[in-house]
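Schema walk-through. Below, the input block comes first and the output block second. Nothing else is stored per chain. Lengths vary across the set, and this one has 146 residues.
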Amino acid sequence: MVSNYKALDRSYEEILVGEKASLSKVISEEDIVCFSKISGDINPIHLDEDFAKKSLFKKKIAHGILTSSLISAVLGTKLPGINTLYLSQTLKFLAPVFIGDELTSVVQVMSKNDDKRIIQLKTSIFNQENVEVVTGEAVVKKLKEN
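--- output ---
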């Protein structure tokens, strides 16, 4: 995943209210297994096909936080980019994410506080059918450039 992205180094002043950025990624079984190992979340709904078949979703689903981590990827690499400090994030999980889903994470600048260099962004993740699977808001601080 990392090798497909180039981090942008933009100044606070260059970032405009209303501006959007996005990136896409297909969620693989390997992503889910690796995230389970890193996070310690080994809930069988993510890892066990037989268990998942008996669930509401009838198959394995990706972790919500794995899915929402794509928001962080946009914030840190595209908008606002390098030198961004993540301060807060609200999340609502609207629909399940399955292995093979192509997700697109979209962030949009809602407001800026010039005195504190704080940026508020709308955050959304859509699947390949353009169904919004995650929504929320992020607040970040754009640090001064090096």
